[in-house]
Specification:
Elements: E1 2-6, H1 9-26, E2 31-34, H2 41-52, E3 62-65, E4 67-69, H3 80-87, E5 99-100, H4 113-120, E6 126-129, E7 151-154, H5 157-163, E8 176-179, H6 182-186, E9 190-195, H7 201-209, E10 227-232
Parallel strand pairs: 1-10, 2-3, 2-6, 3-5, 6-9, 9-10
Antiparallel strand pairs: 4-8, 7-8
Helix pairs in contact: 1-2
The chain binds 2-amino-2-deoxy-6-O-phosphono-alpha-D-glucopyranose.
Length: 242
């Protein structure tokens, strides 16, 4: 595992954008696994800046997102499709037909079809991840076992509370989500996990220094051969000694 500790959120975002950019520069047809949440917002801004500066061409890039709320239409302002459009896709020259986000209005009994899409793209070259306070990645919540493929999950109270800041009222927050599974994530050739803020320090330590357990879903990343952890000093303060 490679670890980059940056002094600030901005530094973390720049380093993460550089890593994503390197993939695109090396392979114009790269398949990016993308994440939502507040952590990667700065990275997306940096990528848009690089595109506007003429440094990146997204025309051959394909993307697959980790997750989506069940019941939210793509036009809903809190849907992850809307997040991706407004934070990235609307500002770069990616072909929208080559951007995939699980369908929040789709047939939840057939959520696994998303894995066929990932397979048809030839798998994910770089998977970007954030981390929830309870160790979730995508929406893979703490559980008794690791779920392999894309599936529907019931969100935990901790996740609903953490995400309530985006909704007008708690009642509006979807209780279900569709997420790529741990197997789909672990098959990515490289993983880039971003973490920012002191409130993530304890879970980062647990995920990377504690036992590998589905109770801390991110701990499975200890088994991946190509993980890059990019964080600010606060988030990595319990992992890396100064
Ligand atoms: C959500 C997303 C995750 C994300 C997590 C952390 O639950 N499904 O993919 O990593 O939130 O979000 P934040 O970066 O806002 O802390």
């Amino acid at each position: 595992m490679q670890i980059f500790v940056l002094p600030s959120y901005e530094g973390m975002s720049k380093k993460a954008a550089d890593i994503v950019a390197a993939h695109i520069i090396l392979n114009g047809k790269t398949v990016l696994g993308l994440a939502t949440g507040s952590t990667p917002v700065g990275m997306y801004k940096q990528l848009v800046n690089k595109f506007k500066a003429g440094e990146l061409d997204f025309s051959g890039v394909k993307s697959v997102n980790l997750d989506e709320y069940v019941g939210l239409a793509p036009s809903h302002k809190q849907s992850y499709r809307y997040f991706m459009q407004t934070n990235l896709f609307d500002h770069i020259n990616i072909d929208k037909n080559n951007t995939y986000v699980p369908d929040g209005l789709g047939d939840i009994d057939n959520a696994g079809r998303y894995d066929d899409i990932i397979a048809s793209l030839g798998g994910i070259d770089l998977q970007v991840l954030g981390i929830g306070h309870n160790g979730h990645i995508g929406f893979n919540e703490p559980s008794d076992s690791f779920a392999y493929g894309t599936h529907v999950v019931t969100l935990t109270e901790s996740t609903i509370s953490a995400n309530s800041r985006f909704f007008d009222s708690r009642d509006e927050i979807p209780k279900l989500a569709v997420t790529m599974g741990i197997g789909s994530i672990m098959q990515a050739k490289q993983i880039l996990l971003l973490a920012s803020g002191f409130d993530k320090a304890e879970i980062i330590k647990e995920a990377f220094c504690g036992p590998i357990t589905p109770r801390v879903p991110a701990s499975v990343l200890q088994l991946h051969h190509n993980v890059i952890l990019v964080g600010d000093e606060a988030a990595l303060s319990k992992l890396v000694k100064k």
